Amino acid sequence: MTTLSAQPTVETLKMLIGGRWVDAQDGRRADSINPFTGKVWATAPFAGVEDVDAAVRAARSAFEGPWGSMTGADRVKLLLRFADLLEAHAEELAVIESTDNGKLIREMGAQMKALPGYYRYFAGYADKIHGETIPTEKPNFFTYTTREPLGVVGAILPWNSPLLLLTWKLAPALAAGCTVVAKAADQTPASILKFGALFAEAGFPPGVFNVVTGDGPTTGAALVGNPGVDRICFTGSNATGIQVMKNAADNITRVTLELGGKSPNIVFADADLDAVTNGVLAGIFAATGQTCVAGSRLLVQSEIYDQLAGRLVERAKDIRLGDPLDPASEMGPVAFRAQLDKILEYVRIGQSEGAVLATGGQRPTAPELGNGLFVSPTIFTGVDNAMRIAQEEIFGPVLCMIPFETEEDAVQIANATPFGLGAGVWTLNVQRAHRMARALRAGTVWVNAYRTLSWAAPFGGFKGSGIGRELGLESLHEFTETKSVWIETSGASQDPFRMG
Ligand code: NAD
Fold first, then answer.
1. Which CATH superfamily is domain 264-447 in?
2. For ligand 1, atom 41, which residue shows the shortest CA distance?
3. Would the pTM of this model clear 0.90, i.e. be above it?
4. Confidence class of residue 371 from pLDDT cuts 50, 70 and 90?
5. What atom in ligand 1 is closest to the CA of residue 215?
């Protein structure tokens, strides 16, 4: 069996194109830095336009060749075999991801353990993709639809959960019969390349899954602009998503966009405050706040505002920062320097806007944290929803506490951002829970829970948080085209000057 283990010395990684491990044609490379040690731990090729084109051509020829001629039942077998291999390598892949992006081994370990389930779930659909017979108003026609695989998919990924967010695209795309070119985030090339080694072992034909590495403006843009790509599935920031959509328009390339959020976590006075405290921590400090569904705006009914603020500040001060590879650590560093600077700049903005910095807001100085890019868990109280810290995605461990009086106020404040990705509601009143679930403009609403996902439940954004859905049956259809077929059954000839 292939060994994927992370090496202690700097690794020289290669890209996967057409089943071969290759360098960029011009030999360029880029470093990947371990955010805990601050040291380069791997280097990856920097793909130019010609490398991306080679990957798209490899994906196209697999689509039109051996992969395209397989049946759904063949794809089921391959996906299930691949899921077993992933399961066997889950721990190694978790270590590689933590080393690349600094997220806790607890978090990445759980994500990697869950990955095989996604492939098994979509394997279950791979031999059940079919159209319908359509009874039309025209008696002399037999009409039916087929659902055909869309073609070549370009998957553009962020650094925060590379393999999980790749899987959300890859598992349904493969189940539907598409081929994929993945573009790893600039900061996290390693896990996706290592993961690529498992495809040949599972028995997939070369070119079904390809990986290119490099930056956004060169490598990512080359993928979006390549006319051989049928759909771009993008997860990342809003600014890049807008660019991707504009560039994809030139070739009428379809887009799925999973973008940012400023999700409200809404606490009513009747809620169970122990459960709320854990839910709020999970929403904003787990993953060091570097998650698109971070519950970064905490809306709290005014009668319990001070009490909950006191509890959260106390718990936040106790969060154990440390080496992401140490299972006892509760919060790791942020993933790279620019992200750290951005978070600290938002702390300054919050203070200048008049919010109260109740805890955190600086780089901790404990010697055991060394050169790690840490920010202490940060809570702002007295936040007004119009402030920039309440409107803009910080993507770090910064919680903004906003008071509200009534249910109507809560809905109005919650919906008053350009985003609509997730929302949490904490109440023991079942009628209110249903009213809130209906009123919130968000792709996912959790009641008395936060940050729970499943391969079976569609995920995506309302408003500025994106276009389309990943996961669930709904996502599978994004990787197919529907064809209507009309069969004339009477033998009559048609009037050429009249639409039939
Ligand atoms: P980013 O937009 O900076 O980069 C994402 C990817 O796009 C990278 O691979 C990058 O190289 C590439 N890219 C950059 N410019 C490009 C261009 N012009 N053309 C094509 N590709 C280009 O995002 P990030 O900082 O890596 O990730 C963080 C963001 O991702 C946050 O906003 C977060 O909310 C969002 N996110 C969303 C979800 C979701 O499912 N909705 C999940 C995770 C992260």
1. Aldehyde Dehydrogenase; Chain A, domain 2 (3.40.309.10)
2. 258
3. yes
4. confident
5. 11
